[in-house]
Amino acid sequence: MSAAPKSRLGRGLGGLIAAAKPAAPAPAAPHAVPVAPAPAPAPTGYLELAVHTIEPSPYQARRDVPAEQLQELAESIRSEGLLQPIVVRKAGDKYQLIAGERRWRAFQLLKIKSIPARIVEASNASSAALGLIENLQREGLNAIEEAHGYASLIRDFDLTQENAAERVGKSRATVANSLRLLSLDPDLQGYVAKNLLSVGHAKVLLGLEDAAQRNLVARRVIEEGLSVRATEKLTQTARASAPAPAGPGRAARPGLGAKDAATVSGIEKKLTSHLGARVAVLHTPKKGRIVIEYRGNDDLQRLLEKLGVEA
Predict the structure, then answer these.
(1) CA torsion, points 225, 227, 229, 233, in degrees to nearest 10?
(2) Which residues participate in catalysis according to the annotation?
(3) Are residues 134 and 270 in the same domain?
(4) Is the same domain home to 197 and 113?
């Protein structure tokens, strides 16, 4: 596991960790009245912590860790050891993760009882920013997870976009563009998270004001493997062919009518319920594709059995 480059982002991480260190206590005033001793401060520095005393961060931006990636990381740790300790802070009688949730999960998978950890003092806002920075440096977040991370910093800690950008070492424009992805409906966010659509595609689709129209165009982009430039032309055509509010008799959408879109959505829901897995039906009048999401080898085997297919 190679060290992160010393970029502006890296300096932001170092600065936040440095800022999280406790200040030296002020000297006692002479002839002060004796008072009860203050509770001992939480230990800081590097320690081996029991894995079961650590809990995940409520500010974790990562929404999903693929089972294959977790297994690969576990095998790497088994053969090479842990190259970088996790980062935690004291939380009551336990420790809360700031950075390193995948490493912590891998130790659980390996049934290793203790894990090297760096203990720091950090506020809720600093903890959230540190966790997001660590994930950004490792390029472990998809575009939607990254957007949710910025949104969490802004929402939970009453920050402006500029403040949030400063905390994670990004430009305000980068944060603003990322947050725009959250304007997409959940299905399209899912396509971006799974890399079925690129961020470039998503930005073009945001030019369509109608969510149903965006969804239909997105399905065609995925099905036909259209480039961003081709998607721009398709959205222009879609806007031009969109019906006026007073013209209910005109065709509702390019490619599919509103009734067809509702039918496709219903099929998706039935398949998802039947298979116990997220299903996307990418339909056009001439051809289509059904995409079934699964998580890991065991889930794939379960789906194959459900479909009556032998591996």
Answers:
(1) 0
(2) 101
(3) no
(4) no
